[in-house]
Amino acid sequence: MIKKIIQANLANKDLKAMLLYSPQNRYWFSHFPSSLGYILVTPEENYLFVDGRYITAARENKSLINIDKIVLLDNQTWRKIAQILASQNINKLGFESDWVTYVTFENWTKLLPKQHLVPVNTEKWREVKSDWEVAQIQKACDITDAVFQDVIKWVKPGISEKDLARFVSDSFLKHGADKLSFDTIVASGQNGSKPHAVPTNKLLENGDLVTLDMGCYANGYVSDQTRTFALGNVTPELKKIYETVFEAQSLGISLLKAGQNAGDVHRAVANYISEAGYGEYFTHGLGHGMGIEIHEEPYENASSQSILEPGMVVTVEPGIYIPGVGGVRIEDDFLITNTGSQRLTSSPRELIIVKPQN
Question: Name one GO molecular function term (predicted).
Answer without folding.
Answer: aminopeptidase activity
